[in-house]
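Quarterly update from the structural biology core.
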Amino acid sequence: MAQMNTARTNAAPAHGVQTDGVQTDGVQADAARAGTPPTHAAPRVAAVIVTFNRLEKLKNVISAIEAQTTAPAHLVIVDNASTDGTGDYLATLETALPLEVVSLPENTGGAGGFSAGMRRGYELGADFVWVMDDDGYPRPDALALLVDGIGEASEALGHAVPFACSVVLFTDGEICEMNNPVPTWDWGRLLVKGRRIVLVERCSFVSVLIPRWALERYGLPFKEYFIWFDDAEYTLRISREGAGVQVLDSVTVHDMGVNQGVNWGMVDASNAWKFAYGARNEGSYRRHHRSLAHFAVFAAQVVVGMRRGGVPRKLRRRIHRALRAGFFFDPPIDRVA
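Predicted structure, tokenized:
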């Protein structure tokens, strides 16, 4: 059971927004405060950050959220049992927004953290949860554009849109390789009508806005996934009856160290544990939520990719075991109500 420590204050902290010598574009809280103070949007948004041992980057994310031109109604920070002083920092933190700290007794991975944070946002009565990692810095208008974009898309498409995500850039301004959403076959349906919005079927949990009704209808992310493919599975799940959208003018900067995608030929001793979770989780999704044929195709892609990449046999066997585990792994959906 998560332990929750709650603090509420109107005091504004003096957080910097410079990380590892890189000044991220458009996230200076001080600059935002120099203009018109942000006001609450008509819909109530709970910004949800999941953090683990990235205290300095977390401070930047908090500053970026405080700098939003449309202020969230709540700031929910899930501390995944950090050991770098994050807990002590959050215990005394004063923010410009109502703050909810969810302190987990053990590290549940990104999947468990997002599940807990989204549940807390729902319990707070939020109309939307705005989900992000602890190293993503949304530009000041990112939230306002997401809120406007999901409303505009819902009206244009004639049905409620299940999520809206931002464009994710690396710190050098290039596209972030790990965070490209997967478009639908008709991705340009709104774009050709002059709207800066494209249709997508899945995205990462780096600045994505999810409406309350989607939480009620589809439940929460699988906390059992721990890490990898939790965001992909969840956004695929909630877009089964209608596509999500990417709002092209809503931008967040992902300060993730190295701007590099992944493939199965990259498995090595240092990252095999992550790839094992990825193999199990995506294998589970394809077996239990698509078809046996989808699982077989995925398994073949993994096996061939590792062989072509020259992955050592010992590590290949580890991933093979994870694939087999995924065949039987089928966690239940955790409901919010």
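Confidence is low (pLDDT under 50) at residues 1-41.
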